[in-house]
Write a structure and sequence with these properties.
two-stranded antiparallel sheet; mainly alpha; about 250 residues
Length: about 250
């Protein structure tokens, strides 16, 4: 049984088992059933940024539903999501159009308005993340979306207390460049700066492995888990997102 054979942190074999899980799951096969597959379809940096933001934003709920909703959304946006975001007639988007669970046409309009504001002032979204830490970058992204819409959206999490799981997932795709799954189109933000995309699943596995003892899946817990992962690899701690995912998959089969 995997559960009985897993070594909890800080067991001497903890890093070895985590590295083995990364090697097992950080493979091309991972992308087949993961939302990152949609980001991998594009080569233009701005298309990749926009797809990463949008797909990560709707990456919650049942995986099959996420993939179906993502396919539908990108089909609507055509060959270049950047061109769509910058030039589409937003008044032609039906505000109540269902896209994914509580994400509707009005939310797509909101994000497109925000993207226009961001790209009017920057060549890349990376500019928002080049000073300070990832939380400050998320704050600048959120504020830019607010300024373009005169209000905040529940779909762009506040970094004050939230773990900001979906935004950190998008950042993982954009910053890490493993040549396998994550694309790493941003070159001025380092993988060492990333924070674990913390959801219920990752939190449960982290607690089971004694990576954290905190009960809530909030910002503090995300930081707590990330600090432990940095002791395993200070340059690329979030590669262990694959290990936590892998442990969860293997345990679910028992």
């Amino acid at each position: 049984m995997l559960k009985s054979s897993l070594h909890p942190y800080p067991h001497p074999l903890f890093k070895q088992q985590m590295d083995e899980l990364v090697a097992r799951y950080n493979t091309p096969k991972f992308s087949i059933a993961d939302p990152v597959q949609f980001v991998q379809r594009y080569s233009d940096k701005r298309d990749i940024e926009i797809v990463a933001l949008l797909i990560a934003t709707i990456a919650w709920g049942r995986r099959e539903m996420i993939l179906k909703s993502s396919e539908r959304l990108l089909s609507m946006m055509g060959k270049s999501p950047y061109d769509y975001a910058m030039t589409a007639r937003l008044d032609k988007i039906e505000p109540t159009m269902p896209i994914h669970r509580t994400f509707f046409g009005r939310d797509l309009i909101y994000i497109c308005k925000g993207l226009r504001h961001i790209y009017d002032e920057n060549d890349s979204m990376e500019s928002l993340f080049m000073e300070g830490d990832m939380w400050q970058g998320i704050g600048r992204l959120r504020q830019a979306m607010h300024d373009a819409n005169q209000g905040y959206s529940k779909h762009i999490a506040c970094p004050d207390k939230s773990a900001c799981k979906r935004l950190h997932l998008a950042l993982r795709w954009l910053v890490r460049n493993d040549g396998i799954v994550d694309l790493g189109v941003w070159k001025k933000v380092k993988p060492s700066q990333l924070i674990i995309p913390l959801d219920v699943h990752v939190g449960d596995i982290a607690r089971m492995l004694n990576i954290t003892t905190r009960k809530g899946n909030d910002k503090t817990t995300a930081l707590n888990i990330t600090e432990v992962l940095r002791t395993l690899d200070s340059n690329d701690p979030i590669k262990y997102d694959f290990a936590l995912f892998g442990a969860g998959i293997e345990l679910s089969k028992e």
